[in-house]
Amino acid sequence: MPVRRLVRGLRFQLTASYGLFFTLLLVVLAFILRGNLRSSINDQISESLTSDWAALKGYLKIERTDGIFKPNWYFDDEDVDENFIVSRLKSLYIITDEQGKVLQMSPNYEEQFGVDPVARITAVLKAPEPLFRDVIGKDGQPYKVRSGFVYNEMAKGENHQHKYYVAIGRSVAKNRELLQKFTWYCVSIIPLASLVGGLLGWITAGRALNPVMEVARTAQRISGSSLSMRIPLRGARDELDFLIATFNQMIGRLETSFTQIRQFSIDVSHELRTPITIIRGQLEVALFTAQTTEQYRDAIVSSLQDIERMSQIVRALLLLSQAETGQVVLQKSSLDLAAIVTDITEQFEIPAEGSGVKLSLSGADQPFMIEADRVQIERMLSNLLSNAVKFTPEGGQVNVRLRKRESNAELTVEDTGVGIPADHLPHIFDRFYRVSSPSSSASPEKGLGLGLSFVAWIAKAHGGSVKVESEPGKGTRFIILLPEGMLGEPGNERNLIATHS
């Protein structure tokens, strides 16, 4: 099992890939170098034999002597260089006539190759270019032989020249030995180099994967109580830094979500505990002190009111759960947004008047046709108006305005209330997020912090958007854009529901 885990590990696979690639690279490079070396050696030997051939034509003359043609060598016996050159030429050579009759042949040539066959001699005499061939001598050593022809010297009165076959050779054993040594060096060095490369690859892969392992180890240590942990960036600005930054962002989002859920749990427990405690107290008091039917009735009525509050909390939680699991489908139809806005605004006139807030509507005198779910649009506007009236002090004003903006219907709900601090604005549409307003003169019923997040979801589900502008002490403005006469973005319909906060 440990071996299997090692083989399946990313570090082993990277090292194996590095090692295989490095080995293949060395093998290919060795083959290329060996081929170049072999070609260079062959060219060098061929050039050397060509040079010897040119020297041979200068020293060798085939002349008629005593009525027959014989080869004669002409050179200065006292010249050391000429003696050396001619000795080298005569060490491995053969001269024949056109019928293959040997005129001269060195003992070494005869010993290693014997007399060349007539067919080869005839082919060489007919060939326009000299021929080279590689031969293994009888001593087992490699040789290279150059074959060609020369003409005889014409005497006075002669008008015809004969061709004579000449072959000279040279041992290439040392050259082949050099090539063989190079091959053995490659065979010896490549495995060692591959081993060293694999070791370096193992070390490099380990160092490269250290940040990844650090991410894994950090992920193992992270729990609901340690979401503040972050992995430090390496400063290389590479893929690993991008991975670490992405992981840290993910942990940050999780930390935010956990904080919101924890706060939500506290709020819910508080919201449920308070009415349960009140109900229990009222019923206990009625049980021990109530003496008339009217006293029992008052206790039951008060308890029912608190039970209704708990029911609202439970319904809100149920609707939130349905929205998150995609169980709600928007029922879209062609609607007049102006008529809906007018109707909902009129419903809030009495609560606004009771709070001493002036409520006004403008721009709803012409139709604004949209494709939308009437229930959700009404709930979205109800949430906005409820918050606006709730957080606007007595003597304040709430303005609702509807107008056309390009291909959208723009709905604005603006109040002169307490406003929202700037540091809260980026989170105002987050789930469970609530802004405490200690400066407000109003004492609104504490909600769950779901209303505005539902407003944002409803706008998005209908293909629109919502944004907020606010200044503490001066008021807040919510601006909603909805496509006029168009369906919302597909795929969002199953994610939306709204309720009063």
Sheet with the most strands? Answer: 5 strands, antiparallel
The coarse overall form would be: rod-shaped
Class of the largest domain in CATH?
A: Alpha Beta
How many strands appear in the DSSP assignment? Answer: 14
CATH-level-2 architecture of the largest domain: 2-Layer Sandwich
| Helix/strand/pairing category | alpha+beta
Number of H- or I-type helical stretches: 12
Rounded Rg: 51 Å
Structural domain count = 3
Task: Briefly summarize what is shown.
With 501 residues, the protein is of the alpha+beta class. The protein folds into 3 domains: 11-179, Beta-Lactamase (2-Layer Sandwich), CATH 3.30.450; 239-324, Helix Hairpins; 333-495, 2-Layer Sandwich (Heat Shock Protein 90), CATH 3.30.565.
What does this structure look like?
By secondary structure, this protein is of the alpha+beta class. It folds into 3 domains: 11-179, Beta-Lactamase (2-Layer Sandwich), CATH 3.30.450; 239-324, Signal transduction histidine kinase, dimerisation/phosphotransfer (DHp) domain (Helix Hairpins, Orthogonal Bundle); 333-495, Heat Shock Protein 90, CATH 3.30.565. Helices cover 52% and strands 18% of the residues. The chain has helices at 2-8, 10-59, 80-89, 107-112, 118-126, 173-221, 239-289, 293-324, 337-347, 349-354, 374-390, 451-461; strands spanning 60-65, 68-73, 93-96, 102-105, 131-136, 142-151, 163-171, 333-336, 358-362, 369-372, 397-405, 408-415, 465-471, 475-483. The strands form 4 sheets. The chain has a 5-stranded antiparallel sheet, with helices on both faces. The chain has a 5-stranded mixed sheet with strand order 9-11-12-14-13. A two-stranded antiparallel ribbon has the order 1-2. Strand 1 and strand 2 (68-73) form a beta hairpin. Helix 7 (239-289) packs antiparallel against helix 8 and helix 11 (374-390) runs antiparallel to helix 12 (451-461). It is rod-shaped and about 165 Å long. The protein starts with a helix and ends in an 18-residue tail after the last strand.
